[in-house]
Specification:
The protein is of the alpha+beta class. The protein has a domain at 2-203 and 210-218. Helices cover 55% and strands 11% of the residues. It has seven helices and ten strands. The strands form four sheets. The protein has a four-stranded mixed β-sheet. The protein has a two-stranded antiparallel sheet with strand order 1-2. The chain has a two-stranded antiparallel ribbon with strand order 3-7. It is rod-shaped and about 190 Å long. 19% of the residues are buried. GO terms for molecular function: ubiquitin protein ligase activity.
């Protein structure tokens, strides 16, 4: 999807933005086609609006030619950005072949029965001869005025629509994805059975002859008025398209910024979550260590209590032993006194 010269893959853009972009392109295409229809209507030519939905413009043109058996086609030879470099008629005469990729693709791949004139600002640049001339007496049946193919859900299958010139101004919301701004489609007037074109008039040159000289054109003053109105409308359409592209680009840029901020926020949230889980793991480890320390402390307290009890018992026994020792000392003293008395008594008996 092209936005302001940049290309974005459709998968990288939101579905709502893709639908909005396609709707803007569809409206722009219908507006350009209606301007061409208006020019043809002013010239008294009955025309039909024919468009198809394809992935690329050049493939859509080839598909239109193939499906509708278009035998005569006038198409732009150069892209818009090449017009400014061609300032004079001699510059146009130097252009001997189509310059745009779309024109070259159509020139190479269009069916052989299609006779194509490639023009640039009203000057014939190149002619691709067809294998046969169109049957001017051919007349389309009313049932062929509005053939439609069902559009698939993927949004890229060919969708063909054909609307008459009177219906084209009433129905401006039909499906398409590209503009035929450089394509002039021939139509048949039922009254004259003569083919006419909605493109700008081609000048008659001495060195090139082509079958467009017999085309009837509106008067010069009507051409000037129509061209001025068309030029203003085209400028307005281009300005609207640029504004829409700018808005789409800004919206896409804001969306990408929001996505980036969301990704950063998600990364920060994940980092915070990882940090939280790490802290939670450390806290659990500390709690386990604290529980173990508490258990060791409780065991130490129990051992202390046992030791205190044993110490108390030992102190009690020590006091008891001290009492018994005192008693033993007293008894010992008494025994010593008795032994002394007995010894003295024994000595006295010996002296007798």
């Amino acid at each position: 999807m092209s936005i302001l010269g940049g290309r974005f893959h459709i998968s990288s853009v939101a579905e709502e933005e893709v639908m909005a972009y396609q709707e803007k392109e569809r409206r722009h295409m219908l507006k350009v086609l209606d301007e061409y229809i208006y020019l043809c209507t002013q010239a008294g030519v009955r025309v039909e609006k024919l468009y198809i939905e394809m992935r690329t413009v050049e493939n859509g043109l080839v598909e239109l030619i193939t499906q509708n058996k278009i035998e005569r086609l006038v198409m732009g030879a150069a892209a818009d950005n090449r017009y400014s470099s061609l300032s004079s008629y001699s510059d146009y005469r130097k252009m001997t072949e189509p310059k745009s990729n779309k024109a070259n693709h159509v020139c190479r791949h269009a069916p052989d029965f299609c006779h194509i004139w490639f023009v640039c600002k009203g000057h014939l640049i190149y002619t691709r001869e067809g294998t046969k001339l169109p049957d001017l007496s051919y007349k389309e049946s009313p049932s062929s005025l509005m053939p439609r193919l069902t559009r698939s859900t993927s949004g890229w299958s060919p969708t063909l629509s054909r609307v008459s010139s009177q219906e084209s101004f009433e129905d401006v919301n039909q499906s398409s994805t590209f503009s035929l701004s450089h394509l002039s489609i021939f139509s048949k007037s039922p009254e004259t059975a003569t083919e006419q074109t909605s493109s700008v008039p081609l000048p008659r040159t001495e060195d090139r002859e082509h079958p467009l000289r017999s085309l009837s054109l509106p008067p010069r003053h009507e051409q000037t008025s129509c061209k001025g109105s068309l030029h203003d409308q085209l400028n307005e359409a281009i300005a609207d398209a640029k504004t829409a592209k700018q808005e789409t680009f800004q919206e896409s840029f804001r969306r990408h910024q929001a996505e980036k901020e969301a990704i950063d926020a998600i990364s920060k949230a994940k980092a915070a979550e990882n940090f939280y889980h790490e802290e939670l793991r450390r806290r659990k480890e500390l709690e386990k260590e604290l529980t173990k320390i508490k258990e060791d402390l409780e065991n130490t307290k129990k051992q202390r209590d046992v030791a205190l009890e044993e110490l108390q018992t030992a102190m009690t026994e020590n006091s008891s032993l001290k009492g018994r020792l005192e008693k033993s000392k007293i008894v010992g003293g008494e025994i010593e006194d008795k032994l002394r008395s007995s010894f003295e008594l024994l000595q006295s008996f010996r002296q007798l």
